[in-house]
Amino acid sequence: MSRIGKEPITLPSGVKVEIEGTRVKISGAKGALERDCRPEIEIEQKEGQIFFKPKGNSKRIRSFWGMTRTLVKNMVLGVNEGFEKKLVVEGVGYRANMSGKTLTLSVGYSNPVDFLLPEGISADVDKNNQITVAGIDKELVGQTAAKIRDIRKPEPYKGKGIRYIDEHIVRKVGKSGTK
């Protein structure tokens, strides 16, 4: 029995849900999201709650049960509150600028790197070279933040690069000049 899957999702006020077979459409104050769910899971809406039931008892179906519930819960949270990830650009001369839907990163390459944000994602850069990636789709926000981080991963000697704000970089000791 899935401990996650058997919990119903309570819908906040202002969130509408449309269920057509395996297709779930959720709309709220920040926007609307759609997803095709697994056919092994039955989704039902009653009295302001969404319930999930498996159509079998195999280990694979039980794992889809909990995963489906979590994906739909993330959709409900996204259209109601939204998600964000914060990144920090560290290094001498490293900086980030935002112009329209393009994030320009000067991170030690010979030319600045332009990163075009996907549809539905917004970014903001403050004066401390902190990038905030925001949107209603949790997967897309996380994937976009990971792609930005991949442009210049933090290196272990000085910690230069792009890292998540809560990420800890394990530092290595460099060469010693004289003994």
Explain this structure to me?
By secondary structure, the chain is of the alpha+beta class. It has two domains: 4-81, Ribosomal protein L6 (Outer Surface Protein A, domain 3, Alpha-Beta Complex); 83-164, Ribosomal protein L6 (Outer Surface Protein A, domain 3, Alpha-Beta Complex), CATH 3.90.930.12. It has two helices and 13 strands. The protein has helices at 59-80, 138-151; strands at residues 9-10, 16-20, 23-27, 32-36, 41-46, 49-54, 83-90, 95-99, 102-106, 113-116, 121-125, 130-135, 161-164. The strands form four sheets. The chain has a four-stranded antiparallel β-sheet with strand order 11-12-7-13, covered by helices on one side. The termini are far apart.
Which key features would you list for this structure?
four-stranded antiparallel β-sheet, 2 helices, alpha+beta, three-stranded antiparallel β-sheet, Outer Surface Protein A, domain 3, 179 residues, single chain
What can be said about this structure in brief?
With 179 residues, the chain is an alpha+beta fold. It has helices at residues 59-80, 138-151, and strands at residues 9-10, 16-20, 23-27, 32-36, 41-46, 49-54, 83-90, 95-99, 102-106, 113-116, 121-125, 130-135, 161-164.
- Total helices: the number is 2
**Beta-strand percentage?**
35-45%
- The gyration radius over C-alpha positions equals 21 Å
State the secondary-structure class: alpha+beta
Architecture (CATH level 2) name of the largest domain: Alpha-Beta Complex
CATH fold-type name of the largest domain: Outer Surface Protein A, domain 3
Task: Average the pLDDT over all residues and give the rounded result.
Answer: 92
- Give the strand order, joined by hyphens, for the main sheet: 11-12-7-13
Low-confidence stretches: none
How many domains, in number, for the residues?
Answer: 2
Number of strands: 13
Oligomer: single chain
CATH superfamily of the largest domain: Ribosomal protein L6
Shape type: elongated
Share of helix, binned: 10-25%
User: For the terminal residues, how far apart are their CA atoms?
Assistant: 62 Å
H/E order of the elements?
EEEEEEHEEEEEEHE
Q: What is the class of the largest domain in the CATH system?
A: Alpha Beta
* Largest sheet data: 4 strands, antiparallel
GO molecular function, one term: structural constituent of ribosome
Pfam families: Ribosomal_L6 (PF00347)
Family: Belongs to the universal ribosomal protein uL6 family.
Function: This protein binds to the 23S rRNA, and is important in its secondary structure. It is located near the subunit interface in the base of the L7/L12 stalk, and near the tRNA binding site of the peptidyltransferase center.
